[in-house]
Amino acid sequence: MDLVRGSTDEEIISDALGRAPDIQLGADHGRWRLCRWRQFVGSYTLPALPDPMFVVHIAGKPNVRTWERDGWSETSSLPGCATIVPSGHPTGWLVDGELDVVTLSVASTDLQRAPALDQFRRMRFAFSDPLGVALTRQVLGELYAPQTKERDVYVGALVDALKAHMMRGPVSASSADIPTAAFSSYRIHAIMNAILERPEASHHLEELAAQAGITPTHFCRVFKKATGVSPHQYVMRARLDRAQQMLEQSDTSMATIADALGFTSQSHFTRAFRQFAGETPSDFRRRRQETLQ
């Protein structure tokens, strides 16, 4: 698996945003390209892309909108949502605050074999996709682990699975499987965003369940169905995502980061980070600094 160079979709987005993606990967056979883009604020216009793109909203502010015929959409994308951008379709985007998304471009020729071809003929904005989000997060978790031949094979398999999931199209589910109405996905998204905004807070299970208006046991089931992980795992992942940003963007000490993000001790932070990223916080910071030099 090699770094993408000269990928048309990604060049167009880079020109519009004024910077390259944080991560850029492509399959050896050229059938997919995956990128991570972070920290963009403002409004952007993207020309039509030559290949369709699957966009997964990983983290950031819960207020990303797309341009419709007469203005910005009433619907906004939240962390945990996915969007399909068809080829040949110019798009406009309004980003209010920090944004973290992963894009997966696939070769247009592959759509001839897609059973749900109609979904790629129009824009599908901000729909719930727990499996797509879970696969994307797993890919990112592996990409920040030390690089080995086995890891590259595993990442390729994960992205191939994400691509297959995208091309299969939405799978129908019974209404009992999807949170709606009374507390609905709105409350789940509100809780997710509260965690992302303040990952250092305690976020006790009982408090989160009370915010959703359901029992802790039921909340755990609904939350995992919506996000692919348990509430505790989501809180820990939010803290570790923020820790990676602090390690990359500052010289803050490990003890200070651990305390600022709600870990019980520096050793607790180090153990959790190693399990999450496959290396210690110090090694992660050193490797990222060497990459930027």
UniProtKB/TrEMBL annotation:
Residues 186-287 form the HTH araC/xylS-type domain. The keyword DNA-binding applies. One of its GO terms (molecular function) is sequence-specific DNA binding. Keywords: DNA-binding, Transcription, Transcription regulation. It holds the Pfam family HTH_18. The keyword Transmembrane helix does not apply. This is Helix-turn-helix transcriptional regulator. It comes from Sphingobium limneticum.
